[in-house]
Amino acid sequence: MRLVSFTSDPEYDTPAVLKRYAERFGANSNQWSFLTGNKKEIRQLAVNDFKFVVVEKKPEEREVPEDLFIHSTWFVLVDAKGQVRGWTDREGQLHAYFDSEDPDARARILNAIPQLLREK
Q1: Cα dihedral across residues 76, 82, 83, 85: positive or negative
Q2: C-beta of residue 76 within 8 angstroms of C-beta of residue 69
Q3: What pTM does this model have?
Q4: Can you say how many angstroms the Cα of residue 90 is from the centroid of all Cα atoms in its chain?
């Protein structure tokens, strides 16, 4: 299992900036990757593949200078084939997206991971 975070601001988030961010949070680079790249390709991945929201804020809408974007803050499970996946609860409801601000999301993600790892 790996964690992958990708930037919503590739013009600012260079590899060096993301490295400092990872160090600030004590991220183990063998388990957690921070990605940047071409703005158009990142947006396509975020919006088309993951169904995330990424909207640039107009300067007059920014509360602080660093407040550049409205973006999703969700965790998504992705299987070994690169497909967005989730887990099924006891009632048969499929869950693939997890709110990073929900304190119970971590437990639900940790319960979902073994389901995916059992697959061949």
Answers
A1: negative
A2: no
A3: 0.65
A4: 26
Report d(CA 41, CA 103) in Å as an integer.
31
Architecture of the domain delimited by 1-72: 3-Layer(aba) Sandwich (3.40)
Residue 49 has pLDDT above 60, yes or no: yes
Between CA 118 and CA 72 the distance in angstroms is 29
Q: How far apart are CA 1 and CA 116, in angstroms?
A: 10
What is the average pLDDT across 48-58? 70
Task: CATH 3.40.30.10 in the chain: give the residue spans.
Answer: 1-72
Contact 71, 8 (CB under 8 A): yes
Fill in the amino acid letter for 71. H
End-to-end, the C-alpha distance of the chain in Å comes to 14
pLDDT of residue 27: 92
Q: List the structure tokens of 21.
A: 């961010």
β partners of residue 5:
34
Handedness of CA 49, 55, 13, 106 (dihedral sign): negative
